Amino acid sequence: MNSMPGLRIPGNTLSNRVRMMAVITILTTLVLAGNLWRLQVLWGDEYDEKSKSNRLRVLRLAAPRGRILDSAGHVLAENKPGFQFSVMSHELDNPAELIQRCAGVLGTPPEKLRSLIEKSRSFPRFVSYPLKKNLSLEEMSLLQSLIADLKGTAVDVKPYRSYPRRETLCHVIGTVGEVSADELSKPVKAGYRIGDSIGKSGIEKEYESYLRGDEGWEQIEIDAKGRQLSEVVRKAPRPGSDIILTVDSGFQGFVEDIFAHRAGSVVAMDPDTGQILAMVSKPGYDLNIFSPAITEKNWRNLNNDPSHPLENRSIRGLYAPGSTFKIVTASAALAERVVGPGTKFLCTGEIDVGGITFRCWNEHGHGQADFHRAIVESCDVYFYEVGKRLGPDKIAKWASLYGLGKPTGLGLPQELPGLVPTTNWKMRVYGEPIKDGETISIAIGQGFLLTTPLQLAVMTSALANGGKVLMPSIVKQISSSDGQALYEHSTVTRWVLPLADEHTEFLRAALKNVVQDRRGTGKKAFVPGVNVKGKTGTTQVISTRDTSLAPDQIPYHERTHAIFVAYVDDLPKKIALVVVVEHGGGGGATAAPIARKIISKYYGVKDPGDGRE
After folding, report:
1. Most buried in the list 85, 318, 338, 612, measured by CB within 10 Å?
2. Domain definitions of the chain by residue range
């Protein structure tokens, strides 16, 4: 057979090429086998874990927050189902498309939406970032159709806090908000993450550890677009505990209605147990504006409101107690034996101390007055004389014994201690001792002295219960989600006043006549069939003012505060009550009638009206 012309393949050359191809094939096979061994054997576990993380996602399941209830079981704070639109930035591969599709439905300008998406990139992997909370049902439906094929987006279930009674007990219940960066940096906030809700004030803050519950988690399988395929493993969350308050919201609401369009506070307390029956601070606000998140406009309006609606005046309002403090001065005078029940002083309507004239509220004077009459008619000159004889430190001693000048221990955040001035305090702050003129001002509840309405309620309760200074409580019970009682209130007596029985009875009789006697300054608190005992107080807010002006001609912020403290101790159901009306005028004219209405409601009797002139 003849070969083709011009084609010659030497045998040894062909053999070399075959051998070379064989070597290359063997080497390639060895490299591939080595890589396969390395991937499957050496790094197999690592890549297997990475593979799983690409198709498995662990989601946190927030625990339903515990409810807050009143003493009758009425709901004051609960959870409502809500929805939010969220992104997972590490999975979001087309932010421009998201903005184009969703900005209109969300009602968010594209630039702001782009800014929110950029912010979400600082979040950890697989942690969703909300672009809009509290979606309406219409928004939710539209978004679900728009984002069906957008990876890294989701409409999440996000319960929000709801307050059915809106403004009732707003300062006590408090608010919930998103945990801040500052809070996250604190060790006690371990377990919280960006986006979590946390109590910001009131019961919501103080009892956060009970209300929060324990979060759960679920592991889900997702496809390449981030859509859930199935649930793999799940641990259910444990709901938070319920907080049951000592307050009846019906009674509370009645007191709040009386205080409509006023500023001030009312505190009603059971003097035998220390349980708070009502705690009102006005003005207030609707708790629901904070849920799920307060708008910048609402926050600005609340903070800039000159009436300070966010302030809980019951525990943070600092007021000179006025003549209600004469209870303390009288107790000190009797116990220290400075004067006795029969001691008399002449009241001409004024007294000179250190070259300064101090006047009685009754410019005509009370004449010769004994101790009983001085309390009933609230004679300032009599208590000026008592104050001179006691001195500032004995007054301070008894103020402290009544629980003034220190937090009461109620269990609400940011309670203020008030101020009971002593010689040491004045030297430390001003570099000089308390002067005689300052001492006699303190004796009638003015000057440096500052108290909160709650402290005055503790003081009044001590008289009503025979001298026990109690720790007040506004939480009656805490119950776990399975019904187990985690806490039940029990009465805590901090100490007992070292006041002799005969002195207690003297004060009790005098305070009864403050209301029962037609010359008593508290006669407008009279309730037929109920032995109301009380003491009026009227406190100046500026040192001097034009006394020629009629009360309604005085600028509002220059008008005196009206205060009345009262108690009923001879019925099975007892009450101690404090009414503070800011710039309300006289304690007897303004605060006492409010106390009468509250006591009438509490005992279920018809309000007799003012009719005692």
Report:
1. 85
2. 249-603
Which residues is 228 bridged to in the sheet? 222
Contact predicate 92/152, CB 8 Å = yes
Q: How many CA atoms lie within 13 A of 370 on its CB side?
A: 7
Cα–Cα distance, 372 to 514 (Å, whole number) = 10
| 3-class secondary-structure state, position 344 | strand
What separation in angstroms does the CA of 280 have from each of 106, 448, 599? Answer: 39, 25, 15
Do residues 398 and 503 make contact, with C-beta atoms less than 8 angstroms apart? no
Bigger pLDDT: 411 or 111?
411
Measured distance CA(263)–CA(282) in Å, rounded: 5
> Percent of the chain, pLDDT > 70?
85
3-state SS record for 548-576:
CCCHHHCCHHHCCEEEEEEEECCCCCCEE
Short-list 141, 129, 134, CA closest to 158: 134
Of 267, 245, 262, 324, nearest in space to 76 by CA: 245
Share the mean pLDDT of the chain: 86
Q: Measure the CA–CA gap between 83 and 132, rounded to whole angstroms.
A: 9
48-62, 151-165, 555-569: least confidently modelled range: 48-62
Place of tokens 């946390």: 198
Say if residue 283 is preceded by a cis peptide, omega within 30 of 0.
Answer: yes
Q: Count how many Cα atoms sit within 13 Å of the Cα of residue 295 in the half-sphere of its side chain.
A: 5
Q: Where are the alpha helices (DSSP H) in 410-473?
A: 423-430, 436-443, 453-464
Q: How far apart are CA 98 and CA 117, in angstroms?
A: 10
Closest CA to 86 of 150, 30, 39: 150
Q: Which of 413, 400, 392, 565 is nearest to 469 (CA)?
A: 400
DSSP label at 473?
B
3-state SS assignment for residue 536: strand
Cα(520)–Cα(503) distance, integer angstroms: 20
CATH superfamily of 249-603: DD-peptidase/beta-lactamase superfamily (3.40.710.10)
Count of Cβ atoms closer than 10 Å to residue 153 Cβ: 26
Taking the CA of residue 88 as centre, how many other CA atoms within 13 Å lie in the half-sphere pointing to its CB? 20
- 212-234 per-position pLDDT tens digit: 988 876 766 665 555 555 556 67
Which SS3 state, helix, strand or coil, does residue 271 take? Answer: coil
Q: What dihedral do alpha carbons 517, 520, 526, 532 form, nearest 10°? A: -90
Cα(566)–Cα(152) distance, integer angstroms: 63
Residue 357: both structure tokens together: 């004239």
